[in-house]
Amino acid sequence: MRLTQELIDITPEEDNLPLHVIHDLINNKEIQAVQDYANKVSITRLGYNDHGPVHMRTVCHNALRMLKLLYTAGIPTTLQTEQVGTFDDSVTAVALASFCHDFGMTISRQDHELYSGILAYNIIDGILQKNLPNERDLMRRVVIRSTAMEGILGHMGTRKVHSIEAGIVLIADGCDMTKGRARVPIVIHSTPKMGDIHKYSANSIDRVLIQKGKERPIQIIVQMSAEVGLFQIEEVLLPKINSSPAKEYIELYACVEGEEPKRYL
Question: What digits encode the pLDDT tens for the residues 230-245?
Answer without folding.
Answer: 888 998 899 999 999 9
